[in-house]
Amino acid sequence: MSLPHSPPREAATVAGGMSATPGKVVAAALAMIVAQLAFRAWAVSGAWYRFDDANFMSKLMSDGLSADLIFHGFAGHLMPGAFALTAYNFGLDPYQWAYPAIELMVLQALADLGALVFLCSAFGRRPGILPPLALFLFSSISLPAFLSWGPGITQLPFLAAIFWGGWAHLNYLRTRRFGWALLTMLITLSAIAFGEKAMLLFWPYAVLALGWFATGDILTRMRTIVVRYLPGVLLYGVVSIGSAAAYLVLGAGSSKASGSSGADGFAQVTQRFLFDSWAPGAVGGPLRWTWLEGNSSGWAEPGAVVSVLAVAVLALLTYEVGRTRSRALRAWWLVGGILVIDIGLIAGIRAGGVGPDIALSFRYLTDTIAVTAMALALATLSLRGAVETLAPTRTSPFLDAPRKVAIATAVVAGLGLFSSYSYAEGWHDDDNTRRYVDTVRGDLAGVDEPLPMADGPVPSWMIWGASHPYNQVSRVLRPLSEKMTFPQVSTDHLYMVDDEGHIRPAAVDPDRRSVGAVDPTPNLDQCALRVRQTPLSVSLDGGVDGAGWWIRVAYVAGDAGRMRVTAGDHSYDVDVEPGFRSLYVRTGEGRFDTVGFQSLTPGSRPCVGGVEVGKAAPFGDPISTSGGTG
């Protein structure tokens, strides 16, 4: 989809006979960038934190920006730059989306300008650079990561570095000036600081050097590069090996990988990745998306017809490039290597626990659109300053027909914009996380004193249970701690957040109850379970195991005092308040089938009416509609 190959000159003629000067080409490119940024500004303005972002929030707000987080990573990722910027945003206002939205826009603009600078430097300011630029700008492949803070802050620096690093690397290959190699590695390390996947930058660096700045067979090319660029080869080698070693030592151990796929799973991941995701995305698809509760993004749903057409278009383009240009198809090594690595990462780390459909999530394809656009340019345009580049062998009825290329570019860009718009609309509608947090904040608006809350997991569509303990309400909603406490013990009142974000009274849904002399309305004068300074043991109708159980004790007391409640290996010293009371105690780890009581205050002898053990469950109306918390 590139405009025809022609010798370098100040002006080229495009469809309709209009003169396309270098200035007009750059102006057209900048107009395209402005249009893309305007669309993405609209898209990101309606977004908010989602899924992995909640993990970011919980981890940072629970543990802070610690050296362990920076140097040992989280969930298999080593991304000190991403955590530092996220911590800065949360320090300003953890629920203010404007800060990350602006930062994502800046990173997107940086990647866009990098693409333009790379294309102009590599091929000149000619009309032929506009189709690959349009492909990068308007494909929907990079949109899902852009709209989500966690993937965006790790992958957009990588996208920008593909082009800016490629630009600096090309200048090093052309001039052999070591300063360009240093700049290339500085850009590379900056991207790696935001996400270890940026180590894949060394693949396009290698392909550009071996494919366009050396001749002969592969071994001869490798020897040529080593001899001609020895200082750079040593520098690149130190940085690449050092980065990989640092990740393996520091970051890989924090992984909670879902598990790898077998041979069948790998084949299914490959099929979905190539034919249902990348190929449709590269020609404007997928056109349709599916949204499932608990997914971190919409999944591509192109359908068989769109998938087949997309593969056919790419196959025809490849055939036409190979038929009319020599030494052009080597450009596909650039995108092919990234595709193979990405498929391997998904199959080896993600798909085992989630299934092969995870390859339908474009957030795992973000880098592919940058190298696809770069490969398209390298396959259709002569690389300036290269030792060996393509040469036209015959006239192409498509590649050498500017009007046809312009129409095809417009169609692909238009379809990509439609796919992006439909994704953004779905992303805006599926905004459960913001609704959840806004609901909590709304219910707390009229609260003057901190509420005693039963802790528990947020909904699984917000954070998966595998992220425990960072999926707990107390961690995710840490910024609201002035109005919520999560005590081990509470008297009479206990609340919890339901799946919609409403704060409601909590009750113990009993799995076990006390047996023997049980009185639901205990009496101080006639009491079968009197608590004295000698221990009292109350049997349950069965044992419970593990942490997080709630014990509800119904008791009546005439005077204030203190007593000790024991469950297994854990004891809790609690206040005794006069009158009929409900005492709630959250248990620790271990197994128990009795609950012990002992008065710690001489003369204080409360009467226990009964004991229930179970999980906390919401009941009644939200506090915002029930008139308060009294």
Tell me about this structure.
It is a single chain. With 630 residues, the chain is an alpha+beta fold. The chain has helices at 22-45, 52-63, 67-72, 80-92, 98-123, 130-138, 143-147, 149-175, 178-192, 202-212, 218-228, 230-251, 263-282, 303-324, 332-354, 366-380, 402-429, 432-444, 473-476, and strands spanning 12-13, 19-20, 289-290, 299-300, 325-326, 391-392, 451-452, 484-485, 489-491, 495-497, 503-513, 536-545, 550-557, 561-567, 570-576, 579-586, 591-599, 607-618. The strands form six sheets. A six-stranded antiparallel beta sheet has the order 9-16-13-18-11-10. A four-stranded antiparallel beta sheet has the order 12-17-14-15, with no helix packed on it. The longest helix has 28 residues, at 402-429. It starts with 11 loop residues before the first strand and ends in a 12-residue tail after the last strand.
Describe this structure in a few short sentences.
The protein has helices spanning 22-45, 52-63, 67-72, 80-92, 98-123, 130-138, 143-147, 149-175, 178-192, 202-212, 218-228, 230-251, 263-282, 303-324, 332-354, 366-380, 402-429, 432-444, 473-476; strands at 12-13, 19-20, 289-290, 299-300, 325-326, 391-392, 451-452, 484-485, 489-491, 495-497, 503-513, 536-545, 550-557, 561-567, 570-576, 579-586, 591-599, 607-618. By secondary structure, it is α+β, with helices and mostly antiparallel strands. α1 (22-45) runs parallel beside α6 and α8 (149-175) runs parallel beside α16.
